[in-house]
Design a protein that fits this description.
The complex is a heterodimer. Chain A is 69% helix and 8% strand. Chain A is mainly alpha-helical. Chain A has one domain. In chain A, the strands form 2 sheets. Chain A has a two-stranded antiparallel sheet. Chain A has a two-stranded antiparallel ribbon with strand order 3-4. The longest helix of chain A is centred in the middle third of the chain and has 34 residues, at 110-143. Chain A is globular. By secondary structure, chain B is α+β, with helices and mostly antiparallel strands. Chain B has a single domain, classed as Macroglobulin (MG2) domain (Immunoglobulin-like), CATH 2.60.40.1930. Chain B is built from 7 helices and 12 strands. In chain B, the strands form 3 sheets. A 6-stranded mixed sheet of chain B has the order 2-12-11-4-7-8. Chain B has a 4-stranded antiparallel sheet with strand order 1-3-10-9, with no helix packed on it. The longest helix of chain B has 23 residues, at 228-250. The termini of chain B are far apart. The relative contact order of chain B is 0.20. The chains are: A mainly alpha, B alpha+beta. At the A-B interface, strand 1, helix 3, helix 5, helix 8 and helix 9 of A face strand 5, strand 6, helix 5, strand 11 and helix 6 of B. Strand 5 of chain A pairs antiparallel with strand 5 of chain B, so a sheet runs across the interface. Chain A: It comes from Microvirga puerhi.
């Protein structure tokens, strides 16, 4: 069954989009990430204009993350204080990212900056998580279940910097300076690369701040909902690129997928969870790296800058 | 007075040269897009009127139907090797490229008319794409970009040439079918029909049709454009509502 998308101005298969929404929603619910870095390339691959793909998938992220946030609230698995700092710093970081985006474009380096940061970010974060989860796996086999590494003095030294705050839910007593730094970086990378940044927040909270896995996912989703809501409205106003029909289809698929993903995530052992997320990130990073290094079959590409609707003179 | 005489001579000249009169018509001047639109086709009909003075043409007539969609500002980029990386380097701008371009003929275009005339009269996609005013000339550097534009656009089905696209029902009546893929953008389309015989253009007509969204699709497009903040906020609310509903539906505890 085909349906015509009024803003993308093309027909798509309803079942295909529902399925796509469900698959990305499942991964999103499972790992507590937005999934935009998966959805956007898939939509562009289907022939949807890039601006519409980027803008519209943010509506799906809002919906599936809202679902996760609501169930996390009921389980008490969100640290609102930590999430609030991440959101506030994220907005400042986004502004910096937009500025840097324009500067890189003026210097003609935008393509290089984007692709290289994508590859670096995904492979570095992915391989760090991979290393950690494999190490944990072997430790567990040798010594039985690993005790939570939450001993006094066993944390990164910068957590002891001044302006300390107590985050009860996250079982964290740390300086806010590194947390603000993380939020600035996430906002910056998000604006530059068009991603929500969940895949940076999740490993950072897990490994650097040693926040419990359950709270990490909830808090990350909370941050994603806030950031993406703003992005969605900005996209609608600035680019008029939000396709409401495509959004509804993606949402319908996505909310179901996210429910099952979240349920599957609760039954997943922590180190398996990290291992799977690491594989996902490495795979995406590898894909971008290949695109950068392998000789393209078609070196040319077309970008539409403007379509004139009025009659020709 | 002198101008009037000159005009009169000019008009008289054209009339005698254009012995054949070409009449064309489209099956539809306003194509409507609704929610189950998956592309369409439009029929072109043409009749060649001859009068007593018209000389007989031994070779018969040929018709070339050229359809141009709304104009787009396109940028074609080329990936080139930079160290270990393949990155977009060189680019070529096409400020007035048609979003859709189709050339339908009754037989291979090379048989219809000479290459020189094709280039001068812009008959056929090759002639249109390689015309000097299609993009800025960079002394041969622009050639691969023109070729790439044609190649990529035809892969999407938006640029096409069909040498069996025009059918002569009788020696003086022909028809053609314009295939519009679903990805052809909304806007105004020009249909130019050129009548040829013995490699010479005898007559031309230009008609238009319009591809427009209707009903729900049109309203959504207008609201998104004219009430963008409201549209953005309602999409956001809708997303929140769906998220909340799903949570309530799946709630078990």
């Amino acid at each position: 069954m085909q349906i015509y998308l009024p803003i993308a101005e093309m027909p798509v298969s309803v079942l295909l989009i529902l399925g796509l929404g469900a698959a990305v929603g499942f991964i999103s619910g499972l790992f507590g990430i937005g999934g935009g870095f998966l959805m956007t390339p898939l939509l562009i691959f289907l022939g949807i204009p890039p601006a519409v793909a980027v803008a519209t998938q943010s509506a799906q992220i809002v919906a599936s993350s809202t679902t996760s946030v609501l169930s996390a609230i009921r389980r008490g698995a969100i640290d609102f204080r930590l999430g609030g700092i991440l959101v506030a710093g994220g907005f400042v970081g986004s502004a910096l990212g937009v500025w840097f985006f324009a500067a890189a474009r003026r210097a003609g380096l935008l393509d290089l900056v984007i692709v290289v940061s994508y590859v670096t970010l995904f492979t570095v974060v992915g391989s760090l998580m991979m290393k950690e989860s494999i190490r944990e796996f072997f430790l567990r086999r040798k010594h039985g279940p690993v005790r939570p590494r939450r001993n006094g003095g066993n944390h990164a030294p910068f957590l002891g910097w001044p302006v300390r705050m107590r985050f009860y839910r996250s079982k964290l007593y740390a300086s806010v300076i590194p947390i603000i730094g993380l939020s600035l970086f996430v906002g910056f990378a998000g604006a530059l690369l068009g991603i929500g940044g969940g895949f940076i927040v999740v490993p950072a909270l897990l490994y650097i701040f040693r926040v419990p896995t359950g709270v990490v996912v909830g808090t990350s989703q909370f941050q994603i909902v806030c950031t993406t809501l703003v992005a969605l409205v900005l996209h609608a106003v600035a680019n008029q690129a939000v396709d409401i029909v495509l959004a509804i289809l993606l949402i319908l698929g996505g909310v179901f997928g996210a429910q099952f993903g979240a349920r599957a995530g609760r039954n997943l052992r922590a180190e398996l969870f990290r291992f799977l997320l690491a594989i996902l990130l490495l795979a995406v990073g590898l894909r971008f790296a290949l695109e950068l290094v392998v000789k393209p079959q078609e070196p040319f590409s077309i970008t539409v800058q403007e379509t004139r609707q009025e009659a020709r003179p | 007075m002198r101008i009037a005489v000159a005009l009169l001579i000019l008009v008289a000249g054209t009339v005698s040269a254009l012995a054949e009169n070409l009449v064309t018509s489209l099956s539809n001047h306003r194509v409507l897009i609704n929610s189950n639109y998956t592309g369409t086709s439009i029929a072109v009909f043409g009749a060649i009127e001859r009068d007593a003075q018209t000389i007989s043409r031994a070779s018969g007539y040929d018709a070339v139907v050229t359809i141009r969609g709304p104009q787009q500002f396109l940028v074609v980029r080329e990936k080139e090797r930079l160290g270990p990386f393949w990155l977009n380097q060189d680019q070529q701008k096409f400020p007035t490229a048609p979003a859709y371009l189709a050339v339908l003929t009754s037989r291979p275009i090379a048989e219809i008319t000479s290459e020189q005339l094709r280039r001068r009269q812009k008959i056929g996609i090759q002639a249109i794409v390689h015309a000097p005013d299609f993009t800025n000339d960079r002394g041969g550097l622009d050639e691969p970009f023109r070729e790439a534009l044609y190649r990529l656009k035809s892969r999407e089905g938006l640029y096409r040439e069909n040498e069996k696209g025009v059918t002569f029902l009788t020696p003086n009546i022909f028809n053609a079918s314009i295939p519009l893929p679903a990805t052809a953008p909304t806007g105004n389309y020009d249909v130019e029909v050129a009548l040829l015989a013995d490699t010479v253009v005898l007559a031309r007509t230009v008609t238009h049709f319009e591809l427009v969204k209707t009903g729900f699709e049109q309203q959504v497009g207008e609201i998104a454009r004219d009430w963008s903040l409201l549209y953005g906020l309602s999409t956001a609310l809708l997303a929140l509502f769906f998220g909340w509903t799903a949570n309530a539906v799946f709630r078990r505890d």
